[in-house]
Design goal:
The first copy, chain A, is built from eleven helices and 17 strands. The two termini of chain A are 15 Å apart. Chains A, B, C, D: It comes from Desulfobaculum xiamenense.
Chain lengths: 363, 363, 363, 363
């Protein structure tokens, strides 16, 4: 059945009629909030800026502070605070400080079933049939109406079929942003150049002679040419995820890490600049698909609110995490939000199954 | 490409020309082997019964003893030894005791690739594309020419789609024997009667009202009628794995365990009788598919030799284990045999993907 | 601080004054309950047998039925039902059917802290310091005043130090019952006879020559002598857990399984007889320590109520599960009972640390 | 028994007498190696710079290139290559290209036992008694004679007892360098200031009121004061690991990551500068203890050679990884080096046990 967005429940502002105005204090030291600052959550939050005028920041994320810029509110990382920024102070969330955190924005009766399902803790023995079916509905909807961000660990391209499935998902329009690290790009280009990942053939699993040089050679070659795009233009990269991403000019961020060789020229070395770049992609996100990377998944989860404002209306941001380990997905799913969902399986199977399921729908 | 059985390498008996005859000593105490007994492996083993006459038991399994019955050799569990049984003694395996253990029976040059692949330790990040493709080839071959035994934990039927996929695999002829426990049958019938497993709907994941009674009710109902077949004849079981198994008269063993409620009438309460019944099914096996059960998988692994004799020729027995945990599959795969292969994923995805892959081949 | 048992909250029977008497119906078919039977939980349950007379079975377990024997109530497995047994029927648990399930029997204000702590889901990153300290308090108390049942997988004796720690715990009086399988006893005696487990030395980790024969030799030797006790009397078993158990005449059950070699003569082959024998030990339990065995831990968990009656008063039964995997301990801990607690670690470290912690207390 | 360093086996250079001189080619593009560059391993490697003169770089690491600086050899990351740098080219490792990779530098007969033990793949069921004992020997030796680098995930300070054990290890002189991320420092200072980690008390596991503000408050406070040392001087940090590190002026690197809040002022934002800083600590390392962090452990593993030169002689660098997951430790242990060892357990228990074991030795 076609996917339908749940309606947004406006808070009952009448019930908050006695609340004071939200208070704001100035930043003195760069990167340091005033005492008693209010920290954001993943939920829609409202700040009473004038009597009866409750304003919500359009683009939030958790564990940040709220800076007033005239009549608008900006959700800002501590490190980006500048002297003079007016930061909201107050830690009570039910209006007493002029702040209202709206923890049940989409919890209508119609969503009771989902609500229940989402609250169930998932294990490898949970039934995931319905998740696949609902995911197909969602992704079809989002392809036309949303913005799907994929957060990917390198394991998604260590396998021939899942690398191909992911490439097709890009080509079919299901990928609007990509967040990953140097390893994803490196091994994807290694696969394009040498048919291997870390020296092992991605289909036959044969270890190639001198295969341990392959990823270093791929990196060295791209570094010589100056960019992945240049390598593609030189004909060195005939297939794969990064090629499909480049061909469609899909925004991507490769965040650097202390594990990196190379790195690829496009990698962002400063992790806070990388964080900013990632958040710029996530600001547009309506669905996030995070898989096979604890670091990037949690980093993205931290900067993804449970809602977004598109075309003037408020809708949920869906967040899927796919991993083999209950430990990892629990870290992500445990956000108290209807919109976080976990699937416990090997990402290889997940990608192949999902791409096939979506393709079948098109026919 | 169609599957081809590897050829069997006969041992070089000429090189063993100076070897003594194998020695046999009589059992005195029931269930107790004579000192110095030879314990079997998963490999073909030859015993020199008369000069130049090296005899191999047709149906072996590891950690048992070899009993001579005239010119034939029987591989027997210690607990089945009877006074007077003549048990082979000797622990050297290269002929010095008249015993030759043939550890590389199918290792021809043609199998070099596979040999390599099989030796690689599998993790969740290994590439499994080729395993699926080779498995489809294998299962198509075995459907016509072999005997495929499935060893199943209850998780395979906790999910709607994987229960359906498994049912279809039975219906399509890919299941020739089934080894499981009480829980598999119980929750499969619970699903048929109530659409739930342990009270949770297997598609919607909704918790049914009084759902914790469902599996007890299913057990009680079948126990009242006397058998699962009777319940089917009464129209209580309209779908599922056990129904498909019964319709095709596929041999199955449900081994009892200390965790069981009920149990189903067909469950074998004595674990050693269950072991014997399982081995009787395994004696015919040419491929074993073990998934989502550590207990039954290891039990079956212990009684499955790496080879079997069919139609007078010797061929490998393939053994697949599918599980989420490296720890579990390593226990099974670490047998030093080319024919053991691990796939790390959720069995739900594995079954759905495998059934779809095989179905596609038929068209 | 010394351990203190929480007080039992009597149900408010006055509030149930309008409730009907509990109804009982006769069993017709052996092993089959009447329709609408009431199934037990882990909680104290009361049945109104006469007006104002609410009777609780002294020894319950979950997923069984309640049989009236005069003025007493027996909690009985379905398979043990005999024709004529009067089984309680009714599925409403708040008195409407004359049945009251008391789900918060020890939830006094004083236990608020614990209550909270127990409800927190444990992962490998949870803080366990307090659990060790509280466990020392508990085990010291139970050594004098309770009955501690240990449920053990073979991994506890694969390591030299943990096998020694466990032996000391037996010797120091912290073990009053032992539930395990054939493998625990086999590898414990293998360690006593050969210093190995599955052929690998338990301290040096060296693989012994022909070490794969060690466990089979240990089994064969004990089977020849007829019992583990006989082997001990013959001087074959100079140390270890089973020796300490025998020296103190501690009740134990070794439940057979389809994985077993041998087995040891003491192993119970029929899994339902084993279940009965285990429950007979568990009936006395005030604390259960389950570790490194999914099968035995869950089996024991199923037959362990959350309370027991000792000396006329009602107290909790504490249930600890120790394992490396969130997946396993979640299965056990998720019982809705204050008295279930999980520790995620390697049982080797757990046993060594616990024995040392308790020993230090004695000085 | 006291720890003794294994002797270094000099390669048999006489056997390499016909080998050519190593070749070097100039870097043209910054950060790009010439084609055919030789990539380093974790092993000692020798380069024939003049006839019969085989030179080994003193400080190596894997997946880098070798740059000749006069008569010395520097092992350099690709990204640090400058135009004109002379990079060794040649990929054959047995002398044919003037390059000799010495893969068995400490494999004397005396080490046969260890050699065996190290090759055994570790699982949660491996026996670890000997590892603890050998580790105590090693750490006692290294405290006086070596340089012990600890690589730590935040889980080590989520638990009261393990945080205390780790602090004591610093105080007792067993920690000479610390590599971690922002989270370790943040939650260690949160614990010092609020007795919580992520808002949960690290001993009682109680959730503190507004506890989710604690780590943000700790970060904000330190950022206001400008450094952790300043916070210590202001009396805000009365205990913990970072305080002990600062008191002893132990070198540490906190590498930034995209998951960070804050961050602490000392965090290195550029991941390649962080990598350089980490390697500067690792250059001195004789033993590395990596625990509960996949990212930092693998990053450190990549930059840690299997040997080091101290006082003119060549000795192994020992590398321990401690984690709950076979998947993680296998990634690290699978380096083909005698000196990598895995322990599968909860780091909390590991730290408490190790500190107690070492303390006991001192008495």
């Amino acid at each position: 059945m076609p996917f339908a967005l749940p309606a947004y429940n406006e808070p009952d502002f009448a019930a908050l009629s006695g609340a004071p105005l939200a208070r704001f204090e100035a930043v003195i030291t760069p990167g340091v909030a005033p005492d008693g600052y209010h920290a954001t959550t993943i939920f829609p939050e409202y700040f009473q800026l004038a009597p009866q005028r409750w304003i919500m920041p359009a683009q939030s994320r958790m564990d940040c502070v709220v800076v007033r810029r005239g009549d608008e509110l900006d959700v800002v990382e501590f490190r980006r605070l500048a002297p003079g920024d007016m930061v909201c102070v107050g830690r009570r969330e039910n209006g007493e400080d002029g702040i209202y955190v709206h923890t049940d924005p989409f919890g209508s009766i119609e969503n009771a079933r989902e609500k229940f399902a989402f609250r169930t803790r998932m294990t490898r023995e949970s039934s995931f049939s319905i998740d696949y079916d609902e995911l197909y509905d969602l992704l079809e909807f989002e392809r036309e109406n949303g913005f799907i961000v994929w957060v990917l660990g390198p394991a998604v391209i260590f396998d021939h079929d899942s690398r191909e499935a992911l490439t097709r998902l890009v080509e079919a329009g299901y990928v609007h942003g990509l967040l990953a690290g140097n390893a994803l790009a490196t091994h994807d280009l290694e696969a394009a150049m040498h048919s291997t990942a870390l020296g092992q053939e991605i289909y036959t699993r044969r270890t190639a002679a001198l295969g341990h040089y392959h990823h270093l050679d791929a990196l060295n070659e791209v570094r010589r040419l100056g960019s992945m795009r240049a390598a593609m233009e030189h004909g060195l990269v005939k297939n794969g995820v990064m090629r499909a991403i480049h061909e469609r000019n899909i925004p991507f961020v490769l965040a650097g890490s202390i594990r990196d060789d190379g790195p690829m020229p496009e990698v962002v070395a400063d992790c806070y600049k990388a964080q900013d770049a990632m958040r710029n992609v996530v600001r547009q996100a309506t669905t996030v698909m995070a898989m096979a990377t604890q670091l990037h998944s949690i980093a993205t989860g931290n900067m993804t609110p449970s809602y977004t404002v598109t075309g003037g209306s408020i809708r949920p941001v869906y967040f899927y995490s796919v991993d083999m380990s209950e430990f990892v997905v629990d870290k992500l799913a445990n956000r108290g939000s209807l919109s976080a969902r976990s699937i416990l399986t090997n990402v290889q199977d997940f990608l192949v199954t999902t791409e096939r399921g979506l393709r079948k729908r098109q026919h």
